[in-house]
Design goal:
about 200 residues; alpha+beta; Immunoglobulin-like; 2 domains; six-stranded mixed beta sheet; three-stranded antiparallel beta sheet; 9 strands; globular
Amino acid sequence: MTNEMKEFLLSEFGTTKVSEVNKDTLKEKLDGPSFIERINYRKAVGVNFKKEAIAKGTILRRENRLADMVPDHQKNPKFGFSCLHYSVSEAAGTLRIKIINKTKTACQVGVRTKDGEAQAEDDYLPVDEIISFKSGQLEAEVAVKILDDEAWEPDEDFYVELYDEGTKNRLIGEDTRTRVTILDDDKPGVLVFEEK
């Protein structure tokens, strides 16, 4: 934890321990749900004293937060993702992300990836395309290729967002952005000596 974060927690909550902070109160003071989700993840890891172990080559694709959990007034009226947070192992191959056309009319929407800790071309292949819906079509999918490597690294995030094809601006609403966490399946190296 950075000194800046410790100072913030101490001044706002009277403690430097994240485990003692009420997450709902903290959410009111900070921007964006992804920061809170990361704190919850780290808190769970700290409490359980272990990070989820993924065996090399394991194919894991998990939906962690469905858009159904978001109140309707915080969603986009026309488009949205069905899931707002995925976890995938490096060996997952391709992640298929479902986009919902809420009006079921013939229309188009842009979808693109955005780097977080995970970087395009190193950890995943970037996507920037226009999705076309036919009249009556409720769902479409975008495929994102996850890249596997042999180097150990911490779990990393990237984002997929929906945007207006004319303005190129991200669409309003909490369900127009989904987070993808890539779980590393490479164990760190072991230090050994030639002689005892």
